[in-house]
Amino acid sequence: MTRNSPRSSALRALMALTPALLVTGIAVALVGGGRASEAAAGAMPTAQSSETPAGAVSATVPSPACLTDDLAGTVTGQPGGAAREATLSLTNTADHTCEIHGWADVALVTPPGDVVRVPTRKLGTAGPAIILAPGAATESRLQWDTCTASGKGCGVGVTFQYIADPDSTGVAADLADLPEADNEGITVKSLRIYPLQPATT
């Protein structure tokens, strides 16, 4: 009877274990691969929503245009040279903010409110839009050449009216420091209107 050597016995034992080891290795690889796939899937970046969050404002909402009826106007006489000068102040009397830009339309008017037609020019360069909060004011410089009331081409009135929006018929301004209005009247040969600016006072 042939006696098995220790070396032969160990070899047979290793061969018997090899299939089991292979099965175990495959199982571990499969489990590990599955977990790696899950981890990879969990690591994928979440797509960002392009929608604006509820309540967020994406752009500044512009203020509505100032209406003539929302503005209280005062024409205040200023010291001048050869020409008469005054400042037209427009104050926002509405309960909301409004926006105005460029020039106001200004005209000399009679006591009944009729417009006195005289040559009128708008001078200067308009600045950026002016935002008027309730109670805030804007100003425009007025300048006119005076004349003799009975002279040819001389317009005579008692105040100036202003228009801020094209759909308005105009509102008569209050007067300050223009005493001629209560005497022979305001005489105007030609009128010049300058752009609206933020009020300085």
Folded structure, characterized:
The chain has one helix at residues 6-42; strands spanning 71-78, 84-92, 98-100, 105-109, 115-116, 120-122, 130-132, 137-145, 155-157, 159-163, 171-172, 174-176, 186-188, 190-193, 197-198. It is an alpha+beta fold. It folds into two domains: 1-40; 68-198, Immunoglobulin-like (Sandwich). Strands 1, 2, 6, 8, 12, 14 and 15 form a seven-stranded mixed beta sheet that branches. Strands 5-4-10-11 form a four-stranded antiparallel beta sheet, with no helix packed on it. Strands 3-7 form a two-stranded antiparallel sheet. The longest helix has 37 residues, at 6-42. The radius of gyration is 44 Å and the shape is elongated. The termini are far apart. Residues 1-59 have low confidence and may be disordered. This is DUF4232 domain-containing protein. Residues 66-181 form the DUF4232 domain.
